[in-house]
Request: fold
Amino acid sequence: MKFYSAKNPGVAQISKQEQVLDILRNVTTTPPDRVKEFSFKGSGGSYAKLFDGTERVLSWDNLVWINRSVSQP
Reply:
């Protein structure tokens, strides 16, 4: 992605990003299930409005690594 300077449009930066997403479990696709055990309980205060006991987790994801570089041409 190339970002140009608002002050001087002749100056630009190039931004590149790489990342690996490891899907551990997902209910909408069929990757191998690698979650052995999971439990979560949220209650009280502002959490009581969000968690009523009927919610379910849709995906467990692990962002393994990220590599970001910014350079000028």
About this structure: The mean pLDDT is 89. Helices lie at 47-50. DSSP finds one helix and three strands in the chain.
